[in-house]
Amino acid sequence: MSHVLTVAGKEFHCYFKTPVGSIFLFFFLLLCGLFFFFVPDYFSLGEASLRRFFDLLPWVYLFFAPAVAMKMWAEERKIGTIETLLTRPVADHRIVLGKFLASFGLLVVALALTAPIPLLVAFTAASPVDVGPVLTGYLGAALLGAVYIAISLFASALTESQIVAFILGLVLCFFFFVIGLPDVVGIFPRALAEFLTDLSLGGHFANIQRGVVDTRDLLYYATMLTVFLLLNVLAVRRRA
Asked: What does the angle CA 227 – CA 233 – CA 238 come to, to the nearest 5 degrees?
């Protein structure tokens, strides 16, 4: 575990050696605040709900997660340090897990920095805010973000181009999020529609967002996270 934390700490620190990490956080918060408060104008609505905020997060993540993860493996391949990294006395899966924790750590920091949004809603809304859906919404957002990061890391492991890694990560995250949404599955036969709904990141996120923490949704996210981290390990070993 110490090796995992060492890799994670090194990679997380790299985000802030340059302005990159701060820029990511700035634009993440800017987009969340802009679209929640001003598109449409929140203050004219006076809603005591953060539903629009949590509806917005998956779409902001679509750009944020691939941008955060795109350099993790692609840069290692481009500058030729991946062979040196993988020949160190550290298991490949520990390196993958360390890089995941670093990227996910930045996403958690970004998510934590949105805390003023529910506080502002609580102070300005005409009625009390229901704390339960807010807490489960943040839980769902963290789980969704973790899977987005794992998918984006897998995309980064497939190429030495950060731009290609970003686009591939975005496309994969978009696919797994929208594939089970009602407007999409409505065009398929019922049996296939149910399968796609079960496969969709969006459907499980919606369940948790409503305040229902079901073990099936937690198991789904754990499975998706495990699958894409394992695919990351296999991709790194095959292309090293």
From this structure: 125
Which residue from 210, 234, 205 is spatially nearest to 220, judged by alpha carbons? 205
CA distance 152 to 171: 10
**What tokens were used for 97?**
């897990």
Amino acid present at 236: V
For residues 104-139, b (16+ Cβ closer than 10 Å) or e, as one string? bbbbbebbeebeebbeebeeebeeebeeebbebbbb
Alpha carbons 54 and 34: distance in angstroms, whole number? 14
Number of domains, the chain: 1
| DSSP secondary structure of 19-49 | THHHHHHHHHHHHHHHHHHHTTBHHHH--S-
In the block, tokens 């789904």 appear at 220
Q: pLDDT tens across 19-71, in order?
A: 888 889 999 998 888 887 776 666 666 666 778 888 889 999 999 999 999 98
